[in-house]
Automatic annotation (TrEMBL):
Its EC number is 7.1.1.-. Belongs to the complex I 30 kDa subunit family. PROSITE patterns: COMPLEX1_30K. Pfam families: Complex1_30kDa. Keywords: NAD, Quinone, Translocase, Transport, Ubiquinone. It catalyses: a quinone + NADH + 5 H(+)(in) = a quinol + NAD(+) + 4 H(+)(out). Residues 160-196 are annotated as: Disordered. The keyword NAD applies. NDH-1 shuttles electrons from NADH, via FMN and iron-sulfur (Fe-S) centers, to quinones in the respiratory chain. InterPro entries: NADH_quin_OxRdtase_su_C/D-like, NADH_UbQ_OxRdtase_30kDa_su, NADH_UbQ_OxRdtase_CS. This is NADH-quinone oxidoreductase. GO terms for molecular function: NADH dehydrogenase (ubiquinone) activity; oxidoreductase activity, acting on NAD(P)H; quinone binding. Residues 39-157 form the NADH:ubiquinone oxidoreductase 30kDa subunit domain.
Amino acid sequence: MSAPFETAQVEQALAGLGAALRGTARTLATPSDLPRAAVAPEAWAVALRALRDGLGTTWFDWLTGVDESDHLEVVACLLAPSGPSAGHGVLLTTALDPGAPVLETAVGVFRGAAWHEREAHEMFGIDFAGHPRLRPLLLPPGFEGHPLRKDFVLASRVARPWPGEHEPSGRTRRRALPPGVPEPGTWGEDAAERTR
């Protein structure tokens, strides 16, 4: 049976980063969870390379963004395909300013990161500096906005009544807006008619 990475192994692989570490590596609550390490955005590519070379995590499994409201978190999962820790890995994270989310591309470290970064660029608006072809991957041409950001307006919720708007007894109560819906008259056809 292969051994999961210990927190000390992750910290040792990232030891050369020094002040660029946002926090120490930590192991999560259950044995099946991966250890995590958080780094400053400017140390992202260096940390990926350090984990690849220091732990043998040569398999770039996935990368995604997470909108935490006050910042955008980028998470990459790296796995070791062989050796004593085969099948185990590490989660590397960094936090970006949601107003200007820019991160160095991981394509120079892991070629397989290209598609993941294109998806994160479309869905979260994260720019990956140095990416060779950061072009649309999933959304149609001309699509505006980033659908997985919390501030993205969900048009289907504007167009359809929200189920919580009426009491079961038929009495109307104060309208509750679902997440992702702006105040009435500030978006869509209503807003367009007001500006005419």
